[in-house]
Amino acid sequence: MRPGEQRTLDDDVLYAAIEAVLMVATEPVPAEVLAAVIGAPATSVQAVCNELAREYAQAERGFTLMQVAGGYQLQTAAEVAEYVERFVGSRRSARLSAAAMETLAVVAYKQPVSRAQISAIRGVNADGVVRTLADQGYIAEVARDPGPGNAALLGTTPIFLERLSLRSLDDLPSLAEMRVDGDAMEAMDRLAADKHG
């Protein structure tokens, strides 16, 4: 083998190597990272991941291969999630409250957004909920407002995309598709106008 030349893998080894790496990964792995680790072209890795995802879905396995948060990740199939939860002993204590979901929606659709803006849209103080969402990794500070007070501006994280099985924020449904409280929609429209006006 010449210096700088990548070893080529036969299909069986490539499939097995990708599965093995994804099996031990704790977060989504981008195709480029898989390619570098395995020594195969990224296009081949993407094609294999897509084929594995189809195979798992057709075989009705206990897991799926999802493309989330900019990478690939093995996840428990929804149909058998309750059995895994029983085994792990979880009772979905990590399930988000209605207030947390509402706050997360505001951040997702209006990011970057300050705590004060979130509270104005929701009509209640959101500091506690924002802290909880940040502690759970759903949101984080992404910038600072250049205006007076230099407020922290919040946005969603890759964990948000991963937990909601989204590839990117573009996969979020439009606000028109969702049932949004009229007052909240009006407040979000005001915020958008303030940002652009």
Topology:
Blueprint: H1 11-24, H2 31-38, H3 42-59, E1 63-68, E2 71-76, H4 81-88, H5 98-110, E3 113-114, H6 115-122, H7 127-135, E4 139-144, E5 152-156, H8 158-163, H9 182-196
Antiparallel strand pairs: 1-2, 3-5, 4-5
Helix pairs in contact: 2-3, 5-7, 6-9
Structure report:
The chain has 197 residues and is of the alpha+beta class. It has two domains: 11-88, Winged helix-like DNA-binding domain superfamily/Winged helix DNA-binding domain (Arc Repressor Mutant, subunit A, Orthogonal Bundle), CATH 1.10.10.10; 98-196, Arc Repressor Mutant, subunit A. The chain has helices at 11-24, 31-38, 42-59, 81-88, 98-110, 115-122, 127-135, 158-163, 182-196; strands at 63-68, 71-76, 113-114, 139-144, 152-156. The strands form two sheets. It has a three-stranded antiparallel beta sheet. A two-stranded antiparallel sheet has the order 1-2. Strand 1 and strand 2 form a beta hairpin.
Question: What's the short version?
Answer:
The chain has helices at residues 11-24, 31-38, 42-59, 81-88, 98-110, 115-122, 127-135, 158-163, 182-196; strands spanning 63-68, 71-76, 113-114, 139-144, 152-156. It has 197 residues and is of the alpha+beta class.
